Amino acid sequence: MLKSGFFIFVVFTAMFSCKSVKIVDKPITFDKERKELTLEYMEKRYGIVTSSTEIKPKMIVVHWTAIPSLEKSFDAFKDSRLPNWRPDITSASSLNVSSQFLIDRNGTIYRLLPETTMARHVIGLNHCAIGIENVGGTEKTPLTKRQLKANIRLVKYLKESFPEIDYVIGHMEYTQFENHPLWKEIDEGYRTEKTDPGYDFINKIRNATSSYEWKSVPSK
Predict the structure, then answer these.
(1) For every one of its 220 residues, what pLDDT tens digit does the chain have, with 9 covering 90 and above?
(2) Is 9 within a domain?
(3) In whole angstroms, what is the distance from residue 5 CA to residue 30 CA?
(4) Could you write out the DSSP letters of every residue in 47-81?
(5) d(Cα 116, Cα 138) in Å, to the nearest integer?
(6) CATH number of the domain that residue 162 is part of
């Protein structure tokens, strides 16, 4: 999908049903540079030295993009390197942020990366976390009922696909894992304050999927 180092945008138009969830493949760039940056991130941030970008999912982290449209949200993730407008986290790594999934405001689920390819979306936990980004999340573009339903369907699909997933958390809860065995961030000063996707949204997802008996998020 890459030619002369440039990203060629490809959308797989075939939509398929998988365990009652419909997913559209809309891949972001994952070229040699992104792979190298991902491996570098894993080594410098987590002390994991490996030649593979594959992860073994143990949790799902739900986010919002705070960007009003699907295409602008996608554009924020598609390139391998962080854009110039993210100086707040560039010092930690030049690897661009992304997630495995992006859900539009109409509830359409897009897969940006394979579920087991590491994406940079949550400090300390990327090595074991599947990320779900939701378009919007601002006062003018609050998350929608269709997005909520899509998140619930996707979480069910992911748990059925990866039974070892034990946690479903909101991005704002990530620091509660700092003393947990899954936590890998080696820099005690590298943290960002998050509020997404809000407790109401994440609790509705957990309540709707409670039959999976998720493990509780560690106490603050």
Answers:
(1) 333 333 333 333 333 334 579 999 999 999 999 999 999 999 999 999 999 999 999 999 999 999 999 999 999 999 999 986 566 677 789 999 999 999 999 999 999 999 999 999 999 999 999 999 999 999 999 999 999 999 999 999 999 999 999 999 999 999 999 999 999 999 999 999 999 999 999 999 999 999 999 999 999 8
(2) no
(3) 11
(4) ----S--B----EEEEEE---SSHHHHHHHHHSSB
(5) 29
(6) 3.40.80.10
Q: What is the number of domains present in the chain?
A: 1
DSSP H helix total and E strand total for the chain:
5, 9
5 occurs within a structural domain? no
| Residue 12 vs residues 104, 143, 156, 158: alpha-carbon distances, Å | 16, 26, 23, 20
134 neighbors 147 (Cβ within 8 angstroms): yes
Instruction: Please list the residues that pair with 167 across neighbouring strands.
Output: 59
In a domain, 215, yes or no: no
The pLDDT of residue 91 is 78
What's the domain range around 182?
20-209
Tokens of 192: 């960002």
Do the beta carbons of residue 118 and residue 175 sit within 8 Å?
no
Kindly state the helix (H) or strand (E) to which residue 211 belongs, with its residue range. Answer: none
> Is 140 in contact with 68 (CB distance < 8 Å)?
yes
Assigned domain for 190 exists: yes
- Cα distance between residue 39 and residue 23, in whole Å: 27
Report pTM: 0.90
3-state secondary structure of 146: helix
